[in-house]
Amino acid sequence: MAVHVNRVALIGTGFVGSSYAFALLNQGVTEELVLIDLNKEKSEGDAMDLNHGLAFAPTRTKIWYGEYEDCKNADVVVLCAGANQKPGETRLDLVAKNLKIFKSIVDRVMVSGFDGIFIVATNPVDILSYAVWKYSGLHHSRVIGSGTILDTARFRYLLGEHFGVDTRNVHAYIIGEHGDTELPVWSHADIGGSPILDSVASDKDKLEEIFVNVRDAAYQIINRKGATYYGIAMGLVRLTKAILHNESSILTVSCYLNGEYDQRDVFIGVPAVVGSDGIKKVVELKLNEMENQQFAHSANVLKETMKPFFKG
Ligand SMILES: NC(=O)C1=CN([C@@H]2O[C@H](COP(=O)(O)OP(=O)(O)OC[C@H]3O[C@@H](n4cnc5c(N)ncnc54)[C@H](O)[C@@H]3O)[C@@H](O)[C@H]2O)C=CC1
Ligand SMILES: CC(=O)C(=O)O
């Protein structure tokens, strides 16, 4: 019987893609990694550079720069290709440009015979995840956007700093658009089982300031260094692991809602159970009235932005 070899195909080896490849190699997550980019020289150079680190890696990984045909046997195709935000631009400003790029990429991946799971990181990630679902013809459970995985990690980090506890012991989610209309789910945020809102250190203004810093983190980083990539790269590795190891982990990702949270026909960030089949289940949190309104607003902004591109 043939032994299955895990393969990840990465499309787009810019700041985000190459940081993801580096983190993937360092954590020994996959047996094979193929790098694909419009700029072949860049992906060839990345493959050479990463291979030179293999002597120091925890496991053996076969890495090469390749072609779309290499997606055929991939378990996961990770999409990091496309334009990033320039200072002052929102994620939604990238929609027309990146949808066009994605149409040609997804068509070529599907022509290869690919039959695995797509992970989408390119912005605006919720709308591009919806597009990948439409363009690929795969079941929606097999398209996962990075959604608010990074925003949730930022939130947990800042809360951990404020309360003086390890970020991994903070249980709190950011949901909604990966962008300006996202929201914190304070009603389900706890540390070690104690609701954060009940804590004596929970000054309302401070908590609001923490959320604003989460929401605006990308702008703050882009103003300083032009792009963000390490945080999302590690989030994408976490997501890849959940799929390849069939973990059934709960992560805040962009997935298709079909009535959950009273929303239909939209990809948006919510907690979901992730495993080898992709999205196994959307976790439906019981939101309070204000959170419900904010979530509905966020979904509406995504739907309105998408409308001109997905008529009928
Ligand atoms: N989801 C998230 O949390 C985050 C998403 N991002 C997004 O990730 C995307 C990539 O950002 P960066 O890596 O900083 O950009 P970058 O400009 O460094 O890299 C983009 C890469 O895509 C390649 N590319 C462009 N068109 C292509 C095509 N048709 N086929 C194949 N490759 C193509 C380029 O050659 C380049 O190497 C952006 O949309 C950015 O906004 C960035 C950070 C966090
Ligand atoms: C760029 C982006 O989407 C982020 O860092 O959140």
TrEMBL record:
Activity regulation statement: Allosterically activated by fructose 1,6-bisphosphate (FBP).
Reaction equation(s) it catalyzes: (S)-lactate + NAD(+) = pyruvate + NADH + H(+)
GO cellular component, one term: cytoplasm
Annotated active site: H178
Organism superkingdom: Bacteria
GO MF annotation: an example: L-lactate dehydrogenase (NAD+) activity
Domain Lactate/malate dehydrogenase N-terminal: 7-145
Enzyme class: oxidoreductase
Entry's EC annotation: 1.1.1.27
Protein's GO biological process: glycolytic process; lactate metabolic process
Modified residues (Phosphotyrosine): Y219
Domain Lactate/malate dehydrogenase C-terminal residues, every copy: 148-310
Keyword Repeat: no
Pathway noted in the entry: Fermentation; pyruvate fermentation to lactate; (S)-lactate from pyruvate: step 1/1
Alphabetical list of InterPro entries matching this protein: L-lactate/malate_DH (IPR001557), L-lactate_DH (IPR011304), L-lactate_DH_AS (IPR018177), Lactate/malate_DH_C (IPR022383), Lactate/malate_DH_N (IPR001236), Lactate_DH/Glyco_Ohase_4_C (IPR015955), NAD(P)-bd_dom_sf (IPR036291)
Residues where beta-D-fructose 1,6-bisphosphate binds: R156, H171
Subunit structure: Homotetramer.
Function noted in UniProt: Catalyzes the conversion of lactate to pyruvate.
Protein's name according to its UniProt entry: L-lactate dehydrogenase
Taxonomic classification: Bacteria, Bacillati, Bacillota, Bacilli, Bacillales
